[in-house]
Known about the structure:
- By secondary structure, this protein is mostly helical.
- It has 2 domains: about 10-40, no CATH class; about 45-110, no CATH class.
- The protein is about 40% helix and about 10% strand.
- The chain is globular, with a radius of gyration of 17 Å.
Amino acid sequence: MKEPYTEPWPADLHNLIRKEYFDPIYFAGTAYCALIQKLHAYRWQVKANVRMYYGEIDECLTIDLARLPSIYQNALGSSTVTAISAGPDANHRGTFARAVPEWKKWFDSLQTK
């Protein structure tokens, strides 16, 4: 029987992903980047207000990629999508943790209107 994995899981993706993937020039030529470009996931017609939070030290998404839906909508003249920084020390998990209470406040404010 194989022994279970007992090493702690690295919290920093820089320890899991090859460093060249953090280079924008290298990343642009990867299959993952090609999928992002092909899917155009940020190109949807947004009619309702949306708030998107991003972390400034997010180990999964660059700031520009996280802000892309907002930038795209603003370029079309829409102000329905807002990108909000969760802070200069917010990683991927920290962004979620900081966004949840803000979503709650925002949803509650919409309910009273």
